[in-house]
Amino acid sequence: MGRMGLGSHHNQNQRTYSANSSDYKLLEEVGYGASATVYRAIYLPSNEVVAVKCLDLDRCNSNLDDIRREAQTMSLIDHPNVIRAYCSFVVDSNLWVVMPFMAEGSCLHLMKIAYQDGFEEAAIGSILKETLKALDYLHRQGHIHRDVKAGNILLDTNGVVKLADFGVSACMFDAGDRRRSRNTFVGTPCWMAPEVLQPGSGYNSKADIWSFGITALELAHGHAPFSKYPPMKVLLMTIQNAPPGLDYDRDKKFSKRISSCDQSFKEMVAMCLVKDQAKRPTAEKLLKHSFFKHAKPPELSVKKLFADLPPLWNRVKALQLKDAAQLALKKMPSAEQEAISQSEYKRGVSAWNFDIEDLKAQASLVRDDDDMPEVRDEDENMKSYVGDKVATDFQFSFGKSNSAAEVSQTENRGQNDQLQLSESLNKKGKSPEIQEKIVFKKNGSSTEAMASTSEKDSILTKAKSVKSRQSQSGPLMPGVVLTHSSSERGRNSDRCENDIQPLTEKASQLRRPPSFSGPLMLPNRASANSLSAPIKSSGGYRDSIDDKSKPNLVQIKGRFSVTSENLDLVKDIPLSTVPRRSQGSPLRKSASVGDWMFEPKPLPTCQSSKELSNSNVPASLLVPHLQNLFQQTSLQQDLIMNLLNNLQLAEAVDASQNGKLPPLPRGAENNGSVETAASERECLLLNKISELHARSAFSNLNYF
Ligand SMILES: Nc1ncnc2c1ncn2[C@@H]1O[C@H](COP(=O)(O)OP(=O)(O)OP(=O)(O)O)[C@@H](O)[C@H]1O
User: Fold this and answer.
1) Which of 48, 377, 514, 552 might form a disulfide with 563, Cβ 3.0–4.6 angstroms?
2) Which domain of life is it from (predicted)?
């Protein structure tokens, strides 16, 4: 990344790039991801072709301070296999990142167009070796890439391979410093290492090695393992299942191909996909593996991959037009359904809402391969579903009806909450009708869907509108950064959390049979890298429906509703430390007392406890009361535990500041476990209270 504070940078050739948007002429759109649109562009002062990546700041979590910090770090990055930014600056609500133009786009894009079953082994070896060199370099510099995937491996016409997306765009969705937020949930589920998916376990550069192994499979198959499943299922499969491998796929044709391959490829992948991160090799060590020792130079094996293909922008355009035309024939889904999908997606993947038990419940509703032979077909089509901006704006809401899914739905009708989420995730799949493939043949008779005049016009208008929004807002000067930063924070706090409960209620009315076509799709733009879009840590997308129908209800944080009166109080308590229950939890933050309160479920009748003690009361009346009491007791215990934990933390801080009070011991109760057994909770609670009493006596502080 260039000197963002000054706005310009000298590249290796000592060429300076200005931070003035009028110096760049945006040409064709050559790609887009979840966060950005990438254009081929001309840098007018030197007439040089560059790529300009326009990142939408409205859709990111980080403020510009974070981005600037990351950009400064990026300025130190200098390796032939890591794509570097020449400079970057803010234009309206976009961050423009100027970088070298990689004329053949990403490996993912190339596979979608011409290699839907993956590349041949020689090309894979070369691409992976160059990528591994980039990782080795980054790891030596103390960085973790965290988004290694085919969609981020870019190719140049002469076969040069560069790893992209390290830095600003990744930082933008990290809600802060990447190294400090290594327990947050950021990345792409299919490519994410088990330790990354497990909250609290922490991870290191070995997470990239796992992603690298997944990428190897992606390049070999044309898609990442588990990509046909919805995100929640992917999370669980990654954590619980045996690691995927080269022979995991049941595709006969592919197996045959692999069996003829050098076994060292298979072995290398297996080394990367070891669940214990400590047992994975470093990038440096992996580079010495025989698979890479024998890898051909990329100009020999990679260059020929795109020898007969039309220019990148024509491929992208053709695919966009084709998909747009297909989509135009479809009935548009209601905005409401899309909003439900988005909200529930976010609910499912947000860092503060990570609930493994919940995920298990959801995943149990998704059938495995054995149950769903039809999934493969759909997945194959999904792979060919070339992402285009127009298409993916809507794909999130398409679903597929199939009889198996309907049966599944009927069987699980009682489990509404989980089913709603499952359905919602599956709605992101592709409509079965949108399955026509576009393949550019490698024999030179490549096909190219031509744009009609009106279509061309619309594209041009669009590009112009992007251009017309440019302003001379200049480089990321600290002053600019700070100003923008505060407004950015404001925007983020507006959109970051969601009114989920009302939406799920609507979802139950709009229930559809689930489809199982769901490789990870993102709201709004599921990207040209649609199989490889990252999960955002916490929101990042503006809600389509801003439901304030509940009195004072501002947002749902995880399972907790937050009322308008107590927003500030809520911010003070780390919600991640509060054990979560069901979505319909009666837990609320009280405005008046600034403490957590209960809203007990309405009971069938209003008997007093005396009346209920009467032995004549029928069991049918007692049972709901008992259930309610049990729930309240249990929640109260959780709350007390949480408050005590907070108290301990505060005391620990006090103690370290004034040296008067020894910090209380932190036990297993501090781990935030959601599913602690009731009896264990009671023991822990009693211990806590005993400790507190002892401490209170010691310090003469009366907490109770
Ligand atoms: N320098 C470049 N030259 C040519 N094409 C590029 C360049 N950078 C990106 N692209 C194309 O644009 C696509 C999207 O870019 P990129 O992956 O950086 O966006 P993103 O929003 O960060 O995506 P995601 O979040 O899904 O990884 C790439 O997959 C690639 O096809």
Assistant:
1) 552
2) Eukaryota
Q: What are phi and psi of 129, to 5 degrees?
A: -65, -45
Predicted model pTM: 0.53
* Distance in angstroms (rounded) separating the CA atoms of residues 522 and 38: 18
Active site residue 358: no
Q: Which of 65, 147, 323, 355 is catalytic?
A: 147
Task: Tell whether the torsion through CA atoms of 697, 702, 703 and 704 is positive or negative.
Answer: positive
Which residue among 24, 29, 38 has the greatest number of ligand 1 atoms within 8 angstroms of its CB, and so is best to mutate? 38
pLDDT value for 327 = 75
**Mind spelling out the 3-state secondary structure of 117-165?**
CCCCHHHHHHHHHHHHHHHHHHHHCCCCCCCCCHHHEEECCCCCEEECC
Cβ pair 129, 162 in contact under 8 A: no
Ligand 1 atom with least separation from CA of 162 = 1
The residue contributing the CA closest to ligand 1 atom 12 is: 31
Which pLDDT score is estimated for 655? 62
Closest ligand 1 atom number to CA of residue 170: 22
Q: Which residues fall within 8 angstroms of residue 650, CB to CB, at 6 or more apart?
A: none
Of 32, 98, 149, 392, best ligand 1 pocket probe by most atoms within 8 Å of the beta carbon = 32
Q: In whole angstroms, what is the distance from residue 603 CA to residue 609 CA?
A: 12
- Residue owning tokens 């020792």: 293
The kind and range of the H/E element at 610 are: helix 609-613
Examine the predicted complex and report whether its ipTM is higher than 0.90: yes
**Cα separation values, 650 from 180, 647, 657, 672, 694, Å:** 22, 5, 11, 17, 17
- Tens digits of per-residue pLDDT, 426-485? 333 333 322 233 233 333 333 333 333 344 444 334 434 444 333 333 333 322 222 233
Q: Which of 344, 334, 655, 624 is nearest to 505 (CA)?
A: 344
Q: What is the pLDDT of residue 169?
A: 52
Report pLDDT for 15.
72
d(CA 473, CA 91): 6
Ranges of residues in the chain whose predicted pLDDT is under 70: 1-14, 60-62, 71, 75, 167-188, 247-262, 330-704
CA distance 178 to 175: 8
How many C-beta neighbours within 10 Å does residue 243 have? 18
**Predicted confidence (pLDDT) per residue in 244-258, tens digit:** 888 644 444 444 455
Nearest-CA residue for ligand 1 atom 26 is 33
Distances (CA, A) of 534 to 174, 308, 527, 529: 11, 31, 10, 9
Mutate to test the pocket of ligand 1, among 87, 106, 188, 525 (most ligand atoms within 8 A of CB): 106
Q: Name residue 154's beta-bridge partners.
A: 106, 162
Q: Distance, CA 56 to ligand 1 centroid (Å)?
A: 13
Q: Which of 515-540 are b and which e, b meaning 16 or more Cβ less than 10 Å from the residue's Cβ? A: bbbbbbbbbbbbbbbbbbbbbbbbbb
Q: What is the pLDDT of residue 307?
A: 84
In angstroms, rounded to a whole number, what is the distance separating the alpha carbons of residues 317 and 457? 13
476/65 Cα distance (integer angstroms)? 9
